[in-house]
């Protein structure tokens, strides 16, 4: 891999190569920053243009759009509390409170640095260890995956401190919503009550955009009495000073590791990584009591992890020819169109192309910093327009975004109802992040549990006896689950 | 509610005035090709490569739109109710057109379509890991009978072509009850599980199999494949009809009731587009096996497939 | 305990009723009982039972505590809620452009915008620019109207 890098760089440092990297990253950030438009739709928009390009630029453009849009999602999450994608949902938790305090620029600064560090480290890991990591990922069968997802679910507890029961209800509602539609193992329709449209299930993005973005529109409309209301104050990114990093570096490293590992594993993704990393930071960071109130450590945890996943997801994609998520699947399909066969021999047969992809990915992550600053500077005047205008634009954009996720008009109805439902629940103090966690993790949780039971002939105990990785993960999950409870009672008795 | 009433009236009025265009003038506006899966998937890319050549052959414009969900049934269901004016067509695979309507309660069936042309058809192959001890299908039968309940075959989901291939093989060999089925969400996770040893058998097209380190055991084709002359056909190893041939095919369908002239025009354009250099190049690059049938032949083939696949559905317990 | 019926308690009750109804629905005889992990209801039933227990607990907590309702301007909220539902139902029959202009007007008027210039320009400009971008530049068509295929 490393030997091929000089030749690969000569592929990248051409007029066309630099053009697609620059344009792709910029466009990716802009599209990601638009409320309602996430990575999936951004890639679908760009895909037709890549069909006429040659191999390396086509893949680099898709990659730039992908990494750019994952980062761009944090901009709308922080500034207007509307994540365009599930992976930015955790970013809202601390990003938006900071923005409300008038520290929007600072919040974006933390998020940007964390994203860049997360992305760059994952690029380095990819260049040096992709085959070894892909081999490691093979140790994760259904049973290990089940234990990992169980660990992920404990995040519900940590993001809903203060309103534990309501958080858990939202989480289990999310898990339930993910079971509606065709059963993944038998194909039978569940909870469709005779409605054919429901057989495809509730689309995750339609629900996420409904409960976050549309319900935000309703919340603002239900409270403002002054049509001239302005949004948060923001005039550009303020990068954190070096001294402000003291005490935060350890958390950053941990989050990057979590993002990398989870990105490599099958059946998970950026949203899972962001939430697990956030929950871990909330458990261990010295500033944990400020989480959810605008704590930079929370932002760092989610943003560094979700950007590290973009590199991690490329590991199985490139080393095994097996896509790590929906976006890398598109990249592989695009490769076949250019006469490259994805598969186990992808790296050995196309070392230069692969090295170009990896190095291009590194450069894209470097570009996130300057381009992120430019895009958010350009976004600043938009935030100064009247709130009513902004609400119109959010509503129209969300509709476009949800429509293009699957092209299914039924998803629009789901979005609208989820918006109203989310609004009613949010007014009563139900947090929405657990609902998203439940919906993200639900399908994998169910499939891995039932696959595991098929393998062990129905014995749940056998999950942990023959599977050390699963046993360790389950123990960690148990600790994560009980710790907040113990802490809660200790703080109670300390007060008494 | 006046606005609703007004809208309905307006829509009805427009519908009434727009008479179907005669075949002479067809097409007058862009043609919509529906991919029932997400942008960037195999079906989507095939249609995107096909669309410009098809548009050129018709002397009009054509674009691809995606409508995904429910294993392709959401897109097909949406098209089934549309006006049969030839401006809307979908690319359905064997599963969307013949399997799903027989296992799910979907609002379309064998009579909902005007088949236009078939585009691709690849035989499927049953395979195992290259490092596995099974050299031939006889080894597999012996091993499964020696240890019933031990071996697992995977699929990319219930009712998918991958599922039907394994069912056709093991039902045809009479050992399906001694094996376990593990469905995954898509071929990617299933192949990863195969590499990890969680599952031992998987079935898909030749193209997919060559991507990994796998060993073919049986091909579901009338004759042996050129690329694997030593691998027996299903009929040779004793798998009886109709389970012995299984193809992943796909083609263009319009809603039922398209004017014969328009169907003829579309079907001819489809042939011209498939023979274009650009599309032939695409097929070569992606190892897509092209297989053109005109509207009448495709209609007969589609109906025969619909019948014979019901035996497979029965065997799969779907 | 001045007011027994509060918004919070109604929501708690609705969630409780919803989860109870769903748990009951999993016991319908609609599936071939394959047993254990093979049953399509195996996983949802576990989830729904836990949900039901949580909803009951939540009901108890909300009955014991009394929380003031947040400020709610009822009329605009209901109008915009109805607007959203009507909008998504009209997108297919009327096309994206026409229905979006209608929704935009509704939101602006409900939120007290009265300037005729804004009401004329903003909806058409924002919906129109999206239609031009997607339908004509990117060739990724949003639903079009029955009147003109280009919007």
From TrEMBL, chain A:
Residue intervals of the DUF112 domain: 19-437
- Signal peptide positions are none
**What Pfam families does this protein's entry cite?**
TctA
* Keyword set includes Transmembrane helix: yes
Write down the InterPro entries for this protein, in alphabetical order: DUF112_TM
**This protein's record includes keyword Transit peptide:** no
Q: Which residues cross the membrane?
A: 20-47, 59-80, 107-130, 136-157, 164-182, 194-214, 256-279, 352-376, 388-404, 410-425, 432-449, 469-489
Name by which UniProt lists this protein: Putative tricarboxylic transport membrane protein
Q: Which UniProt keywords apply?
A: Membrane, Transmembrane, Transmembrane helix
From TrEMBL, chain B:
Q: Name the SUPFAM superfamilies for this protein.
A: Periplasmic binding protein-like II (SSF53850)
UniProt keyword terms in alphabetical order: Receptor, Signal
Spell out the Pfam families in the cross-references: TctC (PF03401)
Q: Does the keyword Hydrolase apply?
A: no
Tell me yes or no: is Signal among this UniProt entry's keywords: yes
Q: Which residues form the signal peptide?
A: 1-23
Checking CDD domains in the record gives: PBP2_Bug_TTT (cd07012)
Assigned protein family: Belongs to the UPF0065 (bug) family.
PANTHER family the record matches: BLR1237 PROTEIN, TRICARBOXYLATE-BINDING PROTEIN
What this protein is called in its record is Tripartite-type tricarboxylate transporter receptor subunit TctC
Q: What is the organism lineage in this UniProt record?
A: Bacteria, Pseudomonadati, Pseudomonadota, Alphaproteobacteria, Rhodobacterales
Automatic annotation (TrEMBL), chain C:
Is Phosphoprotein among this UniProt entry's keywords?
no
Q: Does the keyword Kinase apply?
A: no
* Record-linked InterPro entries: DUF1468
Q: Which Pfam families match?
A: TctB
Q: What keywords were assigned to this record?
A: Membrane, Transmembrane, Transmembrane helix
Tell me the ranges covered by the DUF1468 domain, including all copies.
10-143
Give TM segment ranges.
42-60, 72-90, 120-138
Q: Which domain of life is it from?
A: Bacteria
Kindly provide the name given to this protein in its UniProt entry.
Tripartite tricarboxylate transporter TctB family protein
